[in-house]
Amino acid sequence: MTRKERYKEVIEYFTKAMPEAETELNFENTYQLLVAVILSAQCTDKRVNMTTPALFQKYPNLDRLSKAEYDDVFDLIKSISFPGNKSRHLIGMAQMVMEKFGGTIPMTVEELVQLPGVGRKTANVITSVIDNQPNMAVDTHVFRVSARIGLTVNAKTPLATEQQLVSFVPTDLVYKFHHWLILHGRYTCLARKPKCTECGLTQICKYYNKTIKAEGMKSQGV
Questions:
Q1: CATH 1.10.1670.10 fits 3-21+136-219, yes or no
Q2: Three-state SS letters, the chain
Q3: CA dihedral for 156, 161, 162, 168, sign (positive or negative)
Q4: Average pLDDT for residues 186-191, to the nearest whole number?
Q5: Annotated binding-site residue? 43
Q6: Catalytic annotation on 121?
Q7: pLDDT per position as a tens digit, 88-135
Q8: Domain extents for the chain?
Q9: Mean of the pLDDT values across residues 9-16?
Q10: Is 189 a known ligand-binding residue?
Q11: Taking 60 as the threshold, does the pLDDT of residue 220 lie above it?
Q12: Are the CB atoms for 163 and 178 separated by under 8 Å?
């Protein structure tokens, strides 16, 4: 099977199995999504969703957040991983948007990555979710799942993974493909114990056919 054929099979599967794939972070506008994604670094979406309501109640917009005191923000997000750095990032992000971008969150990757706490992955999430731009956000799930299935080959970095995926995924599906891989990695293709018996991609998955299936045949003496 060629990689092009493998991508075709994956797209057909997810289009049927997960037609409405989207982020599991709760948000009502671009500001809330940006804050939530910054907080989600090395933290679960569930924990972020438990934390953001109180944060948004006290800081409902960028202007309010830009004037926040570090200790106040820290107290609201202290249950999140790395609350110290993230408190500084949130305040710094809000201040830069207000001062450099006139209070409007920019919608290009090149501009977004200038903001404190915003790396390429976060910028890709914002532009793809808010604006459906064909930008592929690569987190640990996307990195792992794309390699296991065989969508990427020898991609050693998130950027290499992003570039390979974007080169094969149709432009109009890039924004959704990211969510497909994240959700598949979060609930089925787990890091330590992938649930291959529950997966509909085993027939074309390189990992399954080279590792799981091969081990099963070996144990049966085949």
A1: yes
A2: CCHHHHHHHHHHHHHHHCCCCCCCCCCCCHHHHHHHHHHCCCCCHHHHHHHHHHHHHHCCCHHHHHCCCHHHHHHHHCCCCCHHHHHHHHHHHHHHHHHHCCCCCCCCHHHHCCCCCCCHHHHHHHHHHHHCCCCCCCCHHHHHHHHHHCCCCCCCCHHHHHHHHHHHCCHHHHHHHHHHHHHHHHHCCCCCCCCHHHCCCCCCCHHHHHHHHHHHHHHCCC
A3: positive
A4: 95
A5: no
A6: yes
A7: 999 999 999 999 999 999 999 999 999 999 999 999 999 999 999 999
A8: 3-21+136-219, 30-131
A9: 97
A10: yes
A11: no
A12: no
Give domain 30-131's CATH superfamily. Hypothetical protein; domain 2 (1.10.340.30)
Nearest-angstrom CA–CA distance, 165 and 152 = 7
Euclidean distance between CA atoms 86 and 187, whole angstroms = 27
Q: Which of 175, 151, 162 is nearest to 21 (CA)?
A: 175
Q: Which of 121, 131, 206, 218 is catalytic?
A: 121
Where helices occur in 30-69 by DSSP H, the ranges are 30-39, 45-58, 62-66
d(CA 161, CA 147): 8
- Catalytic option among 45, 75, 139, 172: 139
